[in-house]
Amino acid sequence: MAEISLCVVLLAGAGLLLKSFVRLSGVxxxxxxxxxxTFEYRVPRTRYPSAERQWNFHWQVVQRVRALPGVGSASAxxxxxxxxxxxxxxxxxxxxxxxxxxxxLTALVNRVAPGLFEALRVPLVGGRFIDERxxxxxxxxxxxxxxxxxxxxxxxxxxxxxxxxxxxxxxxxAIAGVVGDIRHRQLEDRQQVQIYLPFAQHPHIFSTxxxxxxxxxxxxxxxxxxxxxxxxxxxxxxxxxxxESLVNTYLAWRGFLPRIVSGFAAFALLLAALGIFGVIxxxxxxRTREFGLRIAVGAxxxxxxxxxxxxxxxxxxxxxxxxxxxxxxxxxxxETQLYAVSPTDPATFATVALLLALVSLVACYLPARRALRAxxxxxxxxx
Length: 383
Description:
By secondary structure, the protein is an alpha+beta fold.
């Protein structure tokens, strides 16, 4: 019963974690990951001191990469999703009262070059994408996420409205378009308000280039490095990897705990099955004469079989009853690790109970078969 109780706790925890992981694996990140190669670099300020020179370097790299055979498109972004890069900024809606200090509105902010949303297959909800008309000297614009639009302008068209960005030299930008939501940091993220600024209007020394390839993206690794070196032969390039590998690495990390707990649960289930088998085997061996007498006075084989199986199922039911409170405590501790699954998910707990009942029946079946072989003549002679 103690083994079964422990097994219930571990099986329930493993079931909740596995169900959560399956649902998390099916979450749409908001962008496509196939056939996309990415790499990062940071230009030295000593060689590229002005914002204009920094952007010119980034754009030259993008154009050289686009010209490579087998490359469908290329673009640049400051913070690639799932790369660990990115940040937030405060913003003000000029047509509304400014919130008090400490209650400022915040959003994820990113810098993107023309062609990024197209390469990532991020849908356009309204207006337009950032494109080559958004350069230094042109009107300051921004693209916002669908959640941003729905939260602050529900049922309205936000295109053409303005946002003031205190942390970007108090710039006032006009909303040029609305795009689909992207899960930037992790798949569990709720849809967040996001602001995308043209990279050309807000340059930075750091950049990530996204390359859409025809075929295996990693086969283009050397070619993109040389494309960067054709602009500046001394420029280091690092983290050459696929966007798909970034998401897969994140999923592998999130799947570590379910795998560990499932391993312990499987071992506990094996011990419970062996324990039930051992106890029922011992009990059946001690009752051999009893079973012989029952058969001698007319008991059917199924009656003897039922007696043995009932003994095993009673042990299992008692163990499950003792284990459920422990499983509920563990599930509460695991609540922060669950996605779209209740810590008291009835289907998971019912599945655990059913699994243990089946294992118990199998573990009791062999001793029950041995009980059916009891010799009624030998039992009567002994009596």
